[in-house]
Amino acid sequence: MKRDLAGPGRGCYPALNPIKSLRQGQRVPTPPRLEVRNLIRRFDGRTVVDDVSLAIEPGQVTCLLGPSGCGKSTTLRMIAGVDMQDQGSIWVDGKLICDTVFRIPPERRAIGLMFQDFALFPHLSVAENVAFGLPKGATRDMRRVEELLDRVSLSGFGPKFPHELSGGEQQRVALARALAPRPRILLMDEPFSGLDERLRDGIRDDTLSLLKEEGTAVLLVTHEPHEAMRMADEIALMRSGRIVQRGAPYNIYNAPVDRAAAGFFSDINILRGEVQGALTRTAFGEFLAPGVPDGTEVEIVIRPQHIKIDFDRAGRGPNPTAEDGTPARATVERARFLGRESLVEFRMSFDNSILRATVPAVFLPRPGTVMWLMIRRDRCFVFPVTTPQAGDSVAR
């Protein structure tokens, strides 16, 4: 008789009872509301989603952020069930809903959808649009409809039709419709892109409050960093089909994984130098580059708001400091007031390159004015050299 060396769990060890294996008093871990494991999707031999994994808890808003064509919407479509993955699996509350063999149809996944075009039915009233996703019955629970319309500040709008509403009002109807059946998960694909810019922030905040109250797990797709920073508890930054960095908005902004990640959230300036003895020497002084081999060319990334500006003192600038390094001489090219801040472009004396700095409120020095710039060491990022990208300011 052959002996089954794999044991009852078909692995190296016998299967364990997860409750008995826990120490007394410990709780069984609760699975995420939505979990995506190693999703891959290919079209015509090209991989558009490449090994994407993420987990979202109830009441959490996770944002898939990235440029157009990076695979965000395709990932959303696979979770919704309107597209099939080539590899990987999707789980809801610890239960498999889809892999490459087993598949629960979209209408049975308890997943709500919101798209940028709202997709309201023009021949149905506002109340009928909101009630559309509810179980069919004599009244379709109109109390739920009235409650949601009140919570999105559209009380009394039930008899109206979509063409009688503004864009912001249509967006709120679409949100109420998506939440009416109490989905465990809500997928949102660029839902605010069709709104006037002046309306977006208020509607985003109202939407976020309602989603938190409902305890819905939300996966939001956007290409706008401002939207992701405003709404998300966690950001998953995508590029070329892969998630390149995940984290809370503060962490992902202040600790980017590479130069492209830093540049996606804001304008950046680039200094280049060569590492010698774990230091990179530039016109602004030395920058630490621990662990980088000697002779390696690196890029030092600094955002415009972290450049310090000082006045010229008869051809001299401020004294060097450990925090800000050595000042470098520059001449103002132009200055523009942008409302909340001023943007000043400088031509650097040491190599004729352009660096950009932003200053809160009004600061409009005349072109040709000589000033001195300093770079905060704690706000710099040092990365290996990559191909220059549009919008970078590069100084050596």
How would you characterize this protein structure?
The protein has 396 residues and is of the alpha+beta class. It has two domains: 41-259, P-loop containing nucleotide triphosphate hydrolases (Rossmann fold), CATH 3.40.50.300; 268-395, Beta Barrel (OB fold (Dihydrolipoamide Acetyltransferase, E2P)). Helix content is 19%, strand content 33%. It has helices at residues 72-80, 126-131, 142-151, 167-179, 197-214, 225-231, 249-254, 259-265, and strands at residues 34-43, 46-56, 61-65, 87-92, 95-98, 111-115, 185-189, 217-222, 234-239, 242-247, 269-276, 279-282, 285-288, 297-302, 307-311, 328-337, 341-348, 354-360, 370-375, 381-384, 393-395. The strands form four sheets. Strands 6-7-8-3-9-10 form a six-stranded mixed beta sheet, sandwiched between helices. Helix 4 (167-179) packs parallel to helix 5 (197-214). The termini are far apart. The relative contact order is 0.11.
The counted number of beta strands is 21
What is the helix/strand order? EEEHEEEHHHEHEHEEHHEEEEEEEEEEE
Strand order of the largest sheet: 6-7-8-3-9-10
Number of domains: 2
Helix/strand-derived category reads: alpha+beta
Mean pLDDT: 87
Low-confidence stretches: 1-21
CATH superfamily of the largest domain: P-loop containing nucleotide triphosphate hydrolases
- At the third CATH level, what is the topology name of the largest domain? Rossmann fold
* Helix content percent band: 10-25%
In terms of quaternary structure, the protein is single chain
